[in-house]
Write a structure and sequence with these properties.
The protein contains 15 helices and 15 strands.
């Protein structure tokens, strides 16, 4: 095995070390036996540069929809550096000033959810939510066994086994079974491929009303919570219709089911609102946050909850539910809290949420132009979170083969634009090209993304 280089490596040396040692996320490494692995070296704003000096528009905010404020923010790096010199870390039952100030800031942004639990990643934030819910109901003396978590088909909630069990994307689960029990699925909310064969608005919003049927099937005394993404991200970019969440919330409240909103992707301006659920008339009981919380400058996540939920853990010190029986080791990183605080300051002072709304509307306007192409079935999105569903023909809606989507993404990258394609979120529907550029994107950047995408699509005709 080759040893790591002690001097600054060349692009060729990095590629060799990449092949020798890396095990990347969601990557078929067989490809790199014949292809050069892409290696990014630096970035500024919405632009990236690889180790060979080639420049790219970052249409995916760091690859997984994270870098909301854009690359190269020296003020975040500086704030983290100064905090590290003071105190890098302290956790457990003691806090640090940045930890406290971040909790207070998040509570000011989400005043109905004033209790903040800091952890390390979106997957962990959702795991914490599930544990909170189960311990919350275990403290009741009603005799009910409320422990089941419902989730929505096509939504995604993380990589841990429980988070996977609550995700409606079968390909991500393959090979990891048996998954934990206590999870059940409700239908997706994609009008373009309605699970009930109906058309909006004459559909009675059956996709939302199906929640009550699933609660009945599972047993209303066993269902503890429902977790959903406000706007489905990795399952195909699916904004539900306006009536959807009020119906869902009414059913949850009627059956004492806690509503968890997974804002890991949609939080902090991505959708043109500070939080994705704010596009709807809905008030979650718990919200999970991660990616845009610190824009990837440091790893951090949060699970925020109503005070009534927190109060269930305020029994006497000797009682079994006197505290939340869990810990997040790296939830105590003071540097991460400082990065999040500075990131939020940038979003607010530079009005990046407003820019997301304006540029998102422009992006959708430009993408709608592509609907004239015979392989473009449906354009959808909210803010700077957009997707195009590609089909063999518009009448049958037969999905465009995955190989052809890969060709579209590869062509765009060769032209200096990074966009993505979905995994098989549901069988036969892995046919969505998506983009989620940093919130600092401007019209020239969007024009370049759409123009390159149009040329890539035309090559498939």
């Amino acid at each position: 095995m080759k040893q790591a280089l002690t001097s600054e490596p060349s692009a060729a040396e990095l590629a060799e070390l990449h092949r020798e040692h890396l095990w990347l996320h969601l990557t078929n490494h067989k490809l790199y036996e014949t292809q050069e692995p892409p290696i990014m070296a630096e970035g500024k704003g919405y632009m990236l540069k690889d180790v060979k000096g080639r420049e790219f528009i970052d249409g995916l905010s760091g690859g997984v929809w994270v870098v909301n404020v854009g690359h190269g923010r020296e003020s975040i790096a500086g704030a983290v550096s100064e905090q590290m010199k003071l105190l890098p870390y302290y956790a457990g039952s003691m806090a640090t000033p940045p930890y406290i100030m971040l909790a207070a800031k998040l509570a000011s942004l989400l005043p109905s959810l004033p209790k903040v639990y800091i952890s390390n990643s979106g997957s962990e934030a959702n795991e914490k939510a599930f544990k909170m819910v189960r311990q919350y109901f275990s403290a009741e003396s009603t005799g009910k066994q409320k422990y089941k978590i419902l989730y929505r088909n096509r939504d995604y909630h993380g990589t841990t086994l429980a988070a996977l069990a609550s995700s409606g994307q079968e390909e991500r689960k393959t090979g990891f079974g048996p998954l934990p029990e206590g999870f059940a699925e409700i239908p997706h909310a994609l009008c373009y491929r309605c699970a009930f064969g109906k058309s909006y608005p004459g559909c009675n919003i059956d996709c939302a009303r199906a929640l009550e049927q699933v609660i009945g099937q599972e047993g209303e005394d066993t269902v503890a919570a429902l977790i959903v993404e406000p706007i489905t991200a990795g399952g195909g970019i699916i904004p539900p219709v306006p009536e959807y969440y009020p119906i869902l919330q009414e059913i949850c409240r009627r059956y004492e089911v806690l509503l968890i909103m997974d804002e890991v992707v949609t939080g902090f301006g991505r959708t043109g609102a500070l939080f994705g659920h704010q596009h709807y008339d809905v008030q979650p009981d718990i919200i999970t946050l991660a990616k845009g919380l610190a824009s990837g400058y440091m790893p951090i996540s949060a699970t925020v909850a109503r005070k009534e939920i927190f109060n269930r853990f305020m029994a006497g010190p000797d009682e079994p539910n006197g505290f939340f029986r869990d810990i997040s080791t790296f939830g105590g990183c003071a540097g991460s809290s400082v990065a999040a605080l500075e990131n939020i300051r940038i979003i607010e002072e530079e009005r990046l949420t407003e820019n997301s709304a304006i540029m998102g509307a422009y992006l959708m306007e430009r993408l709608k132009e592509l609907e004239q192409l015979p392989i473009v079935g449906n354009v959808r999105g909210q803010g700077l979170l957009a997707g195009i569903e590609l089909v063999v023909d518009k009448r049958s809606k037969q999905p465009l083969p995955e190989k052809r989507l890969a060709q579209i993404v590869a062509y765009a990258r060769e032209e200096g634009v990074i966009i993505g394609r979905m995994m098989r979120s549901v069988p036969g529907c892995n046919n969505v090209i998506y983009m989620a550029p940093p919130l600092v994107i401007d019209k020239p950047g969007i024009d370049r993304i759409v123009d390159v995408l149009r040329n890539a699509l035309r090559k498939q005709l």
